[in-house]
What we know:
Layout: E1 2-7, E2 13-18, E3 21-27, H1 29-32, H2 42-52, E4 61-64, H3 72-84, H4 86-101, H5 103-108, H6 110-117, E5 126-128, H7 131-140, E6 147-153, E7 160-168, E8 172-179, H8 184-194, H9 203-210, H10 218-225, E9 226-229, E10 233-236, H11 243-246, H12 253-259, H13 271-299, E11 303-307, H14 314-323, E12 328-330, H15 337-351, H16 372-381, E13 385-388, H17 391-403, E14 408-411, E15 425-429, H18 436-445, E16 454-458, H19 462-465, E17 477-480, E18 498-504, H20 510-523, E19 527-532, H21 543-551, E20 557-560, E21 563-566
Parallel strand pairs: 1-4, 4-5, 6-11, 11-12, 14-20, 16-18
Antiparallel strand pairs: 1-2, 2-3, 6-7, 7-8, 9-10, 13-21, 14-15, 15-19, 16-19, 17-18, 20-21
Amino acid sequence: MLTLGLSNMRDAAAALVENGRVVAAAEEERFVRIKHVTALPVHAVRFCLQSAGARLSDVDAVAVPWKYWQLGRRAALAVGAMLRSPQLFRVKGRRSAERLAHEWKELAFLRSYLGRRIDGTACPLPVFLDHHLCHAASAMLVSPFERAAVLVVDGASESHTTMLAQADRNHIQVLKRIPLPHSLGQFYAAVTAYLGFTPDRDEYIVMGLAGYGEPRFAEPLRSQVLRALPDGVFQLNTRLLDFHLARNRIFSPDFLRLFGPARKPEEDVAPRHRDIAASAQLVLEEILLHLARHLKRLTGQERLCLAGGVAYNCVANSRLWREAGFHEVYVPPAAGDAGAALGAALWLTHRRGSLTEPMVMRSASWGPEFSEQACREALEQAGLTVERLPDALLCEKVAGELSNGRLVFWFQGRMEWGPRALGNRSLLADPRREDVRALINAKVKLREPFRPFAPSVLAERAAEYFDLPGPSPFMLFTAPVRAAVKGAIPAVVHIDGSARVQTVDADANRLYRLLLEAFARRTGVPVLLNTSFNINEPIVCTPREAVQCFLRTDVDRLVMGNLLARRPES
Length: 570
């Protein structure tokens, strides 16, 4: 059974599954070059079909992780907003009208839209699925577990914001749901807006900023904004902090009296802002632990699957792993709404009894790849000097460049699925250099200095450097850096002594692992600084985009497959 899953919500994406085996998956933003784009994922669908050599009419089913007609809870909240605050009603009404005119209209006419815009062939009748069940499937059905507890936490589904469940390969049993408007995702997004960043986009900046602050505002947040209640329940006081108003930079007078004026985007980040970030992060972690511990009591399971946009908070994920009572935790590489597209394809395949080739997702390499000829043409058209080297020699040479302080763009194989660069579309550097973060920000990233860079490490040597409970192939957990080696890898140690770790094993990414091994032989350190191949844009997808990005920076070397490129000498 060939099943196409797609989402046209924020982080629009498509995924293709054959009998439970992932064929291809990609976010629409990588093709249209707009971060977190909300759109019908036409380009991603075309890519997925091309990967299988299929046309739309060859697909047996189309699955969508959203029941767009289930508006009862949202309508009731809108009526309540109208009675409570005309300003809030206008804001919510405008947003609802936008979604009705675009996302929900596209879903209502999805069959005809796809038939016209993909390849002109007939589209199967789409099946619309429960959003949170699709999130759960996106984790459980590709996890290494036969059974597990499942925690889904995001901004909102059709009517809910959180789901507690237990699952095995055949069933997902829902145990509890938290309804709108009580949302951890919306809480953190509203704080993101309050701190002058873009909500639903810059939450990872707030997570990084939190390490620089003290949680001195945690108590008023706990007692007046976001409260834990018995039996795995929490309550968000939307009269004090409302996500929809916060998106428009409107905050209640009572909230401002408690926490001070909101930061304007152009303002410097002050100590108070760092402390509010630290406080919001701590309270988020506490509520997640409250949920996970209750889920552990309900299920007695030893393993936990996490999904939903809040599962991108790798600091919170690590606390759950260490403190909630679970021995193992799995988070898929695309935990947010992009991943729900894959979950929809997997869940529908399962419901129709065709999940005959289940797989464990140990790699995130499900996007487009390009031939050596396509890479060479892009490099030579730009006038770059190109040298082709076999694998071992390439890795030795690049390891030498890195150990000599040069920055290297690394473009290999299939693009990653999810927001992390994991060695296929990466910028690499020597983690031993104290000044390399400032160097990267000056030459490439042009971003806030408080944002950390992540390490990739050989999996079998990770324990020498990081206090990590287990594998972290998708860079979705943080770990304390061991005191004895902090001075050896200062460029990847965050202000709080932690690092967001990617472990690289023998199977997931062969050439990237060869490079790590070569760097370890040369320096004694099996770690590289790994950040994404982009500049204030989606991660590069094509050879042409990679070359254009390289030319806009002062990065020293560009590697594409076995081709090592540099600018011609003057």
